[in-house]
């Protein structure tokens, strides 16, 4: 599998990708910067990030075995999860000083299993932006591959895939700078997933930075410019997808070969 993925990565001269600590220290334009961040639950350390950066340019995919801390890392980015210790910076600002509601409008989350609010699909979107008119609602739904007629349906009657796309539409309603996607296409059929990937690529071109958690290596190659590899609560390596696939560190290579996780 990994051989095929390497062949699919973009051709060109590769550079040796750095371990997470080295890469972060050399990236002053990080979108997010984690320094000495630890997340503990009881006696267990869930995540430990010494010096880790998420680049500001291009989509970043977070990959790793199940239970490795990927979703926790994502949730740290908009304060849905708080670190037990350490500092997180967003565009150079201490994340803990940004009011959570305002932060979550700028750094929007698309959950793996979105929760439907009471009312119609339109009501769910107006919960975020009450100024939306019927035309705005239809445009928002069609943008994510939904039929505009769903606006009048109860959100609780939507299928899992429809609800996931409604969650994306709801997140985009705030016109975010960053879009966090926790397995953002996991409930979708291949055609719908492809539509969302194309939409996110367009959003990236418009200046929105997506950060994906994915278990799909094919999706990693399709959607991301950069990647972070999380194993056992640590970011072992990050860099461009092309470089990490071409020159993975030994433990990262074991994960990519299916020997870890």
Automatic annotation (TrEMBL):
Top EC class, one word: hydrolase
Region (Disordered): 1-22
Keyword Hydrolase: yes
GO molecular-function terms, A-Z: ATP binding; ATP hydrolysis activity
Entry's EC annotation: 3.6.3.27
Keywords: ATP-binding, Hydrolase, Nucleotide-binding, Translocase, Transport
Ranges of residues in domain ABC transporter: 32-257
Pfam family name, one: ABC_tran
Domain of life the protein comes from: Bacteria
TM ranges: none
Protein known as: Glycine betaine/L-proline ABC superfamily ATP binding cassette transporter, ABC protein
Organism of derivation: Candidatus Neomicrothrix parvicella RN1
């Amino acid at each position: 599998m990994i051989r095929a993925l390497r062949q699919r990565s973009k051709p060109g001269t590769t550079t040796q990708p750095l371990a997470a600590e080295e890469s972060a220290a050399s990236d002053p334009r990080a979108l997010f910067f984690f320094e000495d961040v630890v997340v503990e639950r009881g006696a267990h350390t869930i995540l430990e990030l010494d010096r880790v950066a998420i680049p500001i340019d291009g989509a970043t995919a977070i990959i790793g075995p199940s239970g490795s801390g990927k979703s926790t890392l994502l949730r740290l980015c908009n304060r849905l999860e708080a670190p037990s210790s350490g500092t997180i910076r967003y565009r150079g600002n201490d994340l803990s000083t940004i009011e959570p509601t305002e932060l979550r409008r700028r750094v929007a989350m698309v959950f793996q299993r979105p929760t439907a609010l009471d009312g119609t699909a339109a009501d769910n979107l107006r919960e975020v932006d009450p100024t939306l008119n019927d035309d705005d609602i239809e445009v928002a739904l069609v943008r994510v591959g939904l039929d505009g007629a769903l606006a009048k349906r109860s959100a609780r009657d939507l299928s899992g895939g429809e609800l996931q796309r409604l969650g994306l539409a709801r997140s985009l309603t705030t016109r975010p700078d960053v879009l966090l996607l926790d397995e953002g296409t996991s409930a979708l059929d291949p055609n719908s997933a492809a539509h969302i990937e194309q939409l996110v690529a367009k959003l990236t071109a418009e200046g929105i930075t997506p950060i994906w958690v994915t278990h799909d290596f094919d999706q990693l190659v399709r959607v991301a410019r950069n990647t972070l590899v999380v194993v056992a609560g640590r970011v072992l390596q990050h860099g461009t997808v092309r470089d990490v696939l071409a020159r993975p560190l030994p433990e990262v290579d074991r994960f990519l070969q299916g020997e870890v996780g």
